[in-house]
C-alpha cells in the first residue's frame, strides 16, 4: 500500500507490504478459478441439544483446497471474496450445494432438523439473496424450514433497509434465521426486535473465557436470559470441554456446537455421523 505524503513527496512502499499485496493478488486470481476447478467444498459440524442429547442441526462451513497451498482457512479467503464480489457467485453455489446435501440426507432418513449456512453481508446487500435461496430450495425440493441462514450483527449494517426487507421476506418464506457471533458486532439491541430471528449463537470467545472469567460468564448468562425472554433458541459455539457443556446446560442454554462433539467433517463423514447418531446419541 502506498502512503501519500502530500504533493511532491515520494510514495514509500515497504518490501513487506508490497509482498503482502502481491500475495493477495495471487490468492484472488486463484480464488476466481477455485469454484470452476472444484476446489471448494463444504464441511459440516453437528449441533446437539443439551437436555435430550438429540441432534439439533448441522452447520455448513466452506473449505478451499488450494492446489499448492493446501487447505486455506475461510477467514483468509472469504474477506477477499467479499471485496472482489466473488462471494455472490460462491454464495449461490454454497446454497445449492447445501440444499442438495439436505435432500440427500432426507432421502436417507438421516437429515438433521436444520442445516445452517453462513451468509455474508455482501450477499445480503448486493446479491439477490431471496431469489438465490428460493432457487436452491426449489431445485432441491428442500422445505424452507430445513434451511437456516446465519447472519452476523454487522451483516445488516451495509444496506440496512434492503437487508432488513430481504430477511423479512426470507422469514416469511419459512427459512430459519440465526445471529452468529452474537455479542461481538456493532449494533444496538433494537434490531433484535425488528428482525424476526429464531436463534442466537453465543460467540465462542465468551464460551472460551466463561469458566475462569466472571465477565465472560456474566455475558453468557445475560445472552441466555435475553434470548430466552424473547423466545429464541440459544446455541453456544466453540464448546470444547465437558465442564463448559455442563455449565451451559445449568444456565439454560439449549444447544451446543464445538470440538467436544466433533470438528467440522467432510460431507461423507458427516453423513456417517448422522447415521450413527440416529442410533446412539452421546450423553453429557
Ligand atoms: P463461524 O460461522 O462463526 O464458524 C465457527 C468457526 O469456529 C468455524 O471455523 C469452526 O470450524 C470453528 N469451530 C467450531 N467449533 C470449534 C471449537 O470447539 N473450537 C475452535 N477453536 N473452533 C471451533 P471456520 O470453518 O474456519 O470458519 C470461520 C468463519 O468463516 C466462520 O465463522 C464464518 O464466519 C466464515 N465462513 C465459513 N464458511 C462460510 C461460508 O460458507 N460462507 C460465508 N459467508 N462465511 C463462511
Ligand atoms: Mg456460523
Ligand atoms: Mg460464529
Ligand atoms: Mg465468525
From TrEMBL:
The keyword Iron does not apply. Keywords: Phosphoprotein. GO terms for biological process: phosphorelay signal transduction system. The lineage of its organism: Bacteria, Pseudomonadati, Pseudomonadota, Betaproteobacteria, Burkholderiales. It comes from Rugamonas apoptosis. This is EAL domain-containing protein. Residues 24-278 form the EAL domain.
Amino acid at each position: 500500500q502506498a502512503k501519500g505524503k502530500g504533493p511532491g513527496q515520494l510514495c514509500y512502499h515497504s518490501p513487506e507490504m508490497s509482498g503482502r499485496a502481491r500475495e493477495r493478488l495471487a490468492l484472488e486470481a486463484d480464488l476466481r478459478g477455485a469454484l470452476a476447478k472444484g476446489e471448494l467444498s463444504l464441511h459440516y459440524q453437528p449441533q446437539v441439544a443439551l437436555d435430550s442429547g438429540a441432534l439439533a442441526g448441522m452447520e455448513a462451513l466452506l473449505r478451499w483446497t488450494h492446489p499448492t497451498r493446501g487447505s486455506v482457512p475461510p477467514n483468509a479467503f472469504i474477506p477477499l471474496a467479499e471485496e472482489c464480489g466473488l462471494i455472490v457467485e460462491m454464495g449461490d453455489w454454497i446454497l445449492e450445494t447445501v440444499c442438495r446435501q439436505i435432500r440427500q440426507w432426507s432421502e436417507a432418513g438421516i437429515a438433521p432438523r436444520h442445516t445452517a449456512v453462513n451468509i455474508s453481508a455482501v450477499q445480503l446487500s448486493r446479491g439477490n439473496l431471496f431469489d438465490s435461496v428460493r432457487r436452491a430450495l426449489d431445485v432441491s425440493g428442500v422445505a424452507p424450514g430445513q434451511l437456516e441462514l446465519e447472519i452476523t450483527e454487522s451483516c445488516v449494517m451495509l444496506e440496512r433497509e434492503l437487508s432488513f426487507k430481504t430477511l423479512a421476506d426470507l422469514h416469511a418464506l419459512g427459512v430459519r434465521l440465526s445471529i452468529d457471533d452474537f455479542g461481538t458486532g456493532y449494533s444496538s439491541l433494537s434490531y433484535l426486535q425488528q428482525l424476526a430471528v429464531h436463534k442466537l449463537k453465543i460467540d465462542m470467545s465468551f464460551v472460551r473465557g466463561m469458566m475462569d472469567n466472571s465477565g465472560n460468564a456474566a455475558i453468557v448468562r445475560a445472552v441466555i436470559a435475553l434470548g430466552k425472554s424473547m423466545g429464541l433458541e440459544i446455541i453456544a459455539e466453540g464448546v470444547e470441554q465437558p465442564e463448559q457443556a455442563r455449565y451451559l446446560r445449568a444456565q439454560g442454554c439449549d444447544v451446543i456446537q464445538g470440538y467436544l462433539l466433533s470438528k467440522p467433517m467432510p460431507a461423507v463423514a458427516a453423513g456417517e455421523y448422522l447415521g450413527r447418531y440416529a442410533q446412539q446419541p452421546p450423553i453429557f
